[in-house]
Amino acid sequence: MPKMKYIQIYQDLKTKIENQEYEFQELLPSENTLIFTYSCSRNTIRRAISALVADGYVQTQQGKGVRNIFQPTPQTSFTIGGIESFRESAARNHQTAKTALLCFTELTADEKIAKRTGFAPGSSLYYLQRLHYLDGKPLILNHNYFLKNVVTGLTPEIAEHSIYEYLENTLHMLIVTSKRIMTVEKMTQIDEKYLELGDYNCLAVVSSQTYNGDGVMFEYTQSRHRPDYFCFQDNAVRRRPL
Amino acid sequence: MPKMKYIQIYQDLKTKIENQEYEFQELLPSENTLIFTYSCSRNTIRRAISALVADGYVQTQQGKGVRNIFQPTPQTSFTIGGIESFRESAARNHQTAKTALLCFTELTADEKIAKRTGFAPGSSLYYLQRLHYLDGKPLILNHNYFLKNVVTGLTPEIAEHSIYEYLENTLHMLIVTSKRIMTVEKMTQIDEKYLELGDYNCLAVVSSQTYNGDGVMFEYTQSRHRPDYFCFQDNAVRRRPL
DNA sequence: GCCGATTTGTCCGTATGTATC
DNA sequence: CGATACATACGGACAAATCGG
């Protein structure tokens, strides 16, 4: 089942750029040309191009055209602003992923947990600790909190595989928005025990609140990353001056 | 001169949300209502709302409406996916900014620098080291590389104030895109000397390549942040399933 | 379960403004 | 100046999801 038209055009242009069918700094065909080649309206073309701009693949300039500024990144690593599960990320980079479940409990959010996670005090939660291996190396230690009445039927077996696959394919949940905060924190005893930190005494921490399609925050996760393998990519576009 | 219509609507809705004129989880007025209140077309409304979605302020749901998911963040710190200069960021948080210039030289990119920065080998560059203070505390150590034939007339005096103000107001350069990579690295002797790291032995590093409106990459900067004050916010939207 | 009203999502067409060359 | 290109804005049409009766 093909998706929306503008998504198809977006993906087609994206793969063309990735396959270097346009040179770095080259201008893409003009909107009017693209209207002809894809036989669609100008609006549709512009939506596709806007997505490429947001990805940092191209840059537009009024009166000039759309310039390809994509350069293949040697060290592709973590997502480019999207939401991607650990396994998806591993598959994309042709790496083997393994997950070890360290802890699987249920708890009720007290004031302290509520403040840290953003869940309402008194919420019933699943709390898990999971250790993610990439190509055999322990890289990420995750502390997951899930809202129990949304993520129903979660089991240790599922947690060892892929929770997101369960959420999307079994519970048919739509994941929509994720607010993330990145910091650097001192290591804890648990970090030291499971991650091979060498002589680093701190690690990269990504805290995220994830909302489903109904607007309820159903997940809070703190991902603690081994610093020597942590890399986070981002693309920023400057808003027009105030 | 007021800006574009959809930007005005975007900003108006944004401040209304920030001022909590809509409750958390409340639905905003429907598009048809907003068309009436702002007397514009549906397209214009939708552009404004799309920007709010990208900011993580609201979430849309087909058939339902537009839901406010903004929560005031206590620890506002670094940009939400935008490009912001150090001084802009400080002003937004009502803090005092000071910049010390440690080093101001010119150099030519050799193979090693070219590989690290992304500039072509042989490029003539300005290289600066700057130390940024916030409320009197040294927080960020910046290594800046600027393309000399684009950032013409750069002086130590300008570098001590705000380079971006010079670029935009004097050189009338439009900053458009910035590709950023965040990592955690071990501290160097320079870091140790200037930043008060305590017993941290590593720091947060943001490397960025910045492009101007003509599509030329004119800046490479490595920002080395003191970990205890580093915080990076981001909002991610899940693309529809493959 | 069905139907209709509401709401957002997608797509098309057109007109005008503005920057580049 | 004119041609080309992207930016903004308006209008309308239909699809898909949600909700209430």
What does this entry look like structurally?
The structure is a homodimer of 242-residue chains. By secondary structure, chain A is an alpha+beta fold. The first copy, chain A, folds into two domains: 5-68, Winged helix-like DNA-binding domain superfamily/Winged helix DNA-binding domain (Arc Repressor Mutant, subunit A), CATH 1.10.10.10; 76-233, Chorismate lyase (3-Layer(aba) Sandwich), CATH 3.40.1410.10. Helices cover 28% and strands 33% of the residues of chain A. Chain A contains eight helices and nine strands. In chain A, the strands form two sheets. Chain A has a six-stranded antiparallel β-sheet with strand order 3-4-5-8-7-6. A two-stranded antiparallel ribbon of chain A has the order 1-2. In chain A, strand 7 (202-212) and strand 8 (217-225) form a beta hairpin. In chain A, helix 1 (5-18) packs across helix 3 and helix 2 (31-38) crosses helix 3. The longest helix of chain A is centred in the first third of the chain and has 14 residues, at 5-18. Chain A is globular. The relative contact order of chain A is 0.12. The model of chain A has no long low-confidence stretch (mean pLDDT 88). At the A-B interface, strand 6, strand 7 and strand 9 of A face strand 6, strand 7 and strand 9 of B. Chain A binds a DNA duplex (21 and 21 nucleotides) through helix 3.
What labels would you give this structure?
homodimer, 242 residues, alpha+beta, Arc Repressor Mutant, subunit A, Chorismate lyase, 2 domains, 6-stranded antiparallel beta sheet, two-stranded antiparallel sheet, 8 helices, 28% helix, DNA-binding
